[in-house]
């Protein structure tokens, strides 16, 4: 059975302004998602599930899903603030989405096979999809063995400013031991990569340090673990309007509990994305370069 790709596309992109998931960046109006789908198909994925908001379903179906009709099965599920477990009521002041792992939970009823999770607005690169699909096929009959594609931090920086990344540590077997979120990582004027620690000191890290770009591989019992942790999260945080239920938090807790192992899969792919509006021209240029090198056709679909 081929694995499924779960695409998180419900965010609005506040720093960028507007629905960046629908922004055409390729030469024929291709979105970053289109390149992810193209790479997923050739990497070995067999189905797509998009997590979106109902408010832009019509646009999404017309501008995105129509392209894939004869290429790969695709469906949508909806992430809405009021999709909460029984016994929980949405606070009136809540505006912010519940976070990436809440979005993952929306796929529970339609995904019964090993699956990958990605962000809609990140360009992950063809090698990463092939590596992750190969891993997911190898664990089809297993439980509690997951994966995170670990990008080399030097391959993930923005030319327009500092970025936030989850810096990863692994044991001697290549399994994840922790993900520490660093909200300010930049290539300094001396060419070295540094992050700000808790005291605002700049700490140098190696170019090849693995970071999480929210590209994960799971088997379906992850939904059950997530559901239980979401109840705990809401019990503690439902009245905090800024609290979010993130994938790394869930994964970290499962690792600490000894319930799972997460392989860190190294990838040579260069990540890029539109973190800032100023990144757009650079992304357009990078896509053109990849087309010129023959890695992608001029027209994807």
Summarize the structure.
The chain is α/β, with parallel strands linked by helices. It has seven helices and 13 strands. It has a single domain, classed as Spore Coat Polysaccharide Biosynthesis Protein SpsA, Chain A, CATH 3.90.550.
Describe this entry's structure for a reader.
The protein is 26% helix and 26% strand. The protein has 301 residues and is an alpha/beta fold. It has one domain (4-292): Spore Coat Polysaccharide Biosynthesis Protein SpsA, Chain A, CATH 3.90.550. The strands form two sheets. Strands 1, 2, 3, 4, 6, 7, 8, 9, 10, 11 and 12 form an eleven-stranded mixed β-sheet that branches. Strands 5-13 form a two-stranded antiparallel ribbon. Helix 1 (32-43) packs across helix 4 (126-138). The longest helix is centred in the last third of the chain and has 17 residues, at 221-237. The protein is globular. It starts with a strand and ends in a 9-residue tail after the last helix.
Number of strands: 13
Series of secondary-structure elements, N-terminal to C-terminal: EHEHEHEEHEEEEEEHHEEH
Briefly note the structural class of the backbone. alpha/beta
Uncertain segments are 12-18
- Strand share of the residues? 25-35%
Name the CATH class: Alpha Beta
Computed Rg: 19 Å
Bin the helical content. 25-40%
């Amino acid at each position: 059975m081929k694995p499924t790709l779960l695409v998180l596309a419900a965010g609005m992109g506040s720093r960028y302004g507007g629905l960046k998931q629908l922004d055409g960046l390729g030469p024929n109006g291709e979105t970053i998602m289109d390149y992810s789908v193209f790479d997923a198909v050739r990497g070995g994925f067999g189905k797509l599930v998009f997590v979106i908001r109902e408010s832009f379903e019509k646009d999404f179906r017309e501008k995105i899903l129509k392209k894939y009709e004869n290429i790969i099965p695709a469906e949508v599920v909806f992430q809405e603030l009021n999709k909460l477990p029984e016994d929980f009521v949405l606070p009136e002041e809540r505006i912010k989405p519940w976070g990436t792992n809440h979005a993952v939970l929306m796929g529970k009823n339609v995904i019964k096979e090993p699956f990958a999770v990605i962000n809609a607005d990140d360009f992950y690169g063809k090698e990463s999809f092939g590596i992750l699909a190969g891993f997911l096929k190898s664990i089809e009959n297993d439980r509690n063995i997951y994966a995170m594609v670990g990008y080399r931090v030097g391959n993930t920086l923005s030319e327009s400013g500092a970025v936030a990344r989850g810096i990863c540590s692994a044991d001697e077997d290549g399994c994840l031991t922790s993900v520490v979120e660093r909200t300010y990582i930049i290539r300094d004027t001396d060419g070295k990569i540094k992050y700000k620690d808790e005291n605002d000191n700049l700490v140098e890290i190696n170019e090849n340090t693995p970071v999480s770009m929210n590209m994960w591989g799971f088997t379906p019992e992850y939904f059950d673990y997530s559901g239980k942790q979401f109840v705990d999260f809401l019990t503690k945080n439902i009245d905090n309007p800024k609290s979010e239920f993130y994938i790394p938090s869930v994964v970290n807790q499962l690792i600490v509990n000894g319930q799972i192992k997460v392989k860190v899969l190294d990838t040579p792919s260069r990540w890029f994305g539109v973190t800032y509006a100023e990144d757009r021209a650079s992304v357009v240029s990078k896509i053109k370069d990849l087309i010129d090198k023959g890695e992608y056709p001029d027209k994807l679909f």
